[in-house]
Amino acid sequence: MTIKKATLKDIAKAAEVSVATVSYVLNNVTTQTIPEETKCRVLEAAKQLHYVPNLAARSLVKQKSGLIGILVNRADNEGFWRQLHYSPFINRLEQLLTARGYHVVLFSLDAADPKLDIISERKLDGVFVVDVRTENFHLISSRFSIGVPLIVVDSIIDDSLFYKVNYDYEDAFALAKASPLAPFGYIIIDSFNNVELAHYIASLSGLGQDAVHLLKDEQSLSRFMSSKTTQTGLALSEFAAIIAAKYVNPANLAVICSAGCPDILPNAAIRISFGNLKAEGAYQLMIKLLAAPREGPDNQYVLVKAVRTN
Prior knowledge:
Blueprint: H1 8-15, H2 19-26, H3 36-48, H4 55-62, E1 67-74, H5 80-85, H6 87-99, E2 103-110, H7 117-120, E3 126-130, H8 134-141, E4 150-153, E5 163-167, H9 169-177, E6 186-190, H10 195-205, E7 212-215, H11 218-225, E8 233-236, H12 238-244, E9 253-257, E10 270-273, H13 277-291, E11 301-304, E12 307-308
Parallel strand pairs: 1-2, 1-3, 3-4, 4-5, 5-11, 6-7, 6-8, 8-9, 9-10
Antiparallel strand pairs: 10-12
């Protein structure tokens, strides 16, 4: 049995608007003033009808491909915690972009030596670059034409031409330090390809180098934890905390939930969470830049605030 594809006319009927209004909303036309309530109604109708845009037709009409790239930098032999770290972020970002009518193309790049030929073969309307080494950033960004929005995630990059979406770690540390476990005797930081971000996070702890552990493998973490069994500690990411909880009482851990899955933590651990706000913030910024590339926020760093959830 062949299932009939939903059309703009079907969406217009379901949303009780004109076909033209549906076209304006789905194509993100900025020259038309459409009430937010109407936009939401159209997008919800498109979702309920499982509408799939004709990307080939859209590309011919708008000179756009309808493709958004997510470039995740991966280190050799990275631990399972890094392999899983960005899954919630990518899943939520893909959901938001798909609902808006875009198709998402996910690329895994060698963080040390990114191969970029396959990227050059794709005509992307916008790009997210995740956890990138500073020395490789301009090599990657140069592969995209002027006018293609490129947003950097989880990285400190000294280039005012590009927007960066990061967690507000200063805010998160303030919440952690207000918890009953403070002051902390040590901190465990997830390994980042962007070493500037890792160094910045370490500096916020106020601890000496011997009290800061950069998680690269469980064996070195177990050695680090052997002298910390009676101290309270702070872990950056849920996965780092789960490994640490093998060696210390989880009731002595506060966790800044940078992976977006706080529910996997032991109940006794204190959680500082960001929810899905990083994906939401990155998505909203991309949509704004796609519509008006020169009308982004004044601040090149978009920081996502944290909340304590227990």
